[in-house]
Design brief:
The chain is an all-alpha fold. It has one domain. It contains 6 helices and no strands. The longest helix is centred in the last third of the chain and has 37 residues, at about 130-165. It is elongated.
Length: about 160
C-alpha cells in the first residue's frame, strides 16, 4: 500500500512539472494554452498528501489569474494595435506572422508578428511610415500578452513547487 501512495505522488509531481514546462512554451506559442496548462499542473499538487497542498483559496486566486490573463491576451494586442492606428489587416497580419514565425524559431517568433503586421498595413494601402507605426503597436501588444502569460505561469509554477517541496 505504501508504494502505491509513493508512486501516485511521483506521478503527480512529474505530470505537474511537465505541464508547467509546456505552459511556459505555450506563453510564446499561440496554439498552446499556457496559463491553463499551468493551472492544471497546479491541480496535480492538490492530491499529494504529505506536502503543503495548495488551498482552495489559492486555487481560486490561481483560477482567477488564468481567467483574467486569458481574456486580456485577446484584448491587449488589439489595444496596442488600436493605440498605434493599426488597421484590421495589420492585426490579421500580426496573427498570421506569429503562426508563420513558428516555423522559423526562435527569430521568427520575434520578427513574424512585426513583419506580418507591417505587410498587412502595406496591403491596407498605408504608406511605409504609418505602416511601421501600426506594426510596432501590434508587436508591442503581442509582447505585452506574452509577458502577462509568463507572469501568470511563473506565479503558478512557484505555487506548485512550494506545494511539492
Amino acid at each position: 500500500m505504501w508504494y502505491n501512495v509513493r508512486m501516485a505522488e511521483t506521478i503527480s509531481i512529474v505530470a505537474g512539472s511537465l505541464l508547467l514546462l509546456i505552459s511556459f512554451i505555450g506563453c510564446v506559442v499561440p496554439v498552446i494554452p499556457g496559463p491553463l496548462l499551468a493551472f492544471i499542473g497546479l491541480l496535480c499538487a492538490r492530491g499529494i498528501p504529505p506536502h503543503d497542498q495548495p488551498s482552495i483559496q489559492m486555487l481560486a486566486i490561481a483560477g482567477g489569474c488564468v481567467l483574467v490573463v486569458t481574456v486580456l491576451d485577446y484584448i491587449v494586442p488589439a489595444l496596442g494595435a488600436k493605440r498605434f492606428n493599426c488597421s484590421r489587416l495589420g492585426v490579421l497580419g500580426c496573427v498570421l506572422g506569429t503562426v508563420i514565425g513558428l516555423f522559423f524559431m526562435p527569430l521568427g517568433l520575434l520578427l513574424g508578428p512585426f513583419l506580418g503586421a507591417l505587410i498587412g498595413e502595406l496591403v491596407a494601402g498605408k504608406a511605409l511610415g504609418p505602416s511601421f507605426k501600426g506594426a510596432t503597436g501590434a508587436f508591442l501588444g503581442y509582447v505585452a500578452g506574452i509577458m502577462m502569460k509568463l507572469l501568470c505561469c511563473g506565479f503558478l509554477a512557484a505555487a506548485f513547487f512550494r506545494a511539492v517541496t
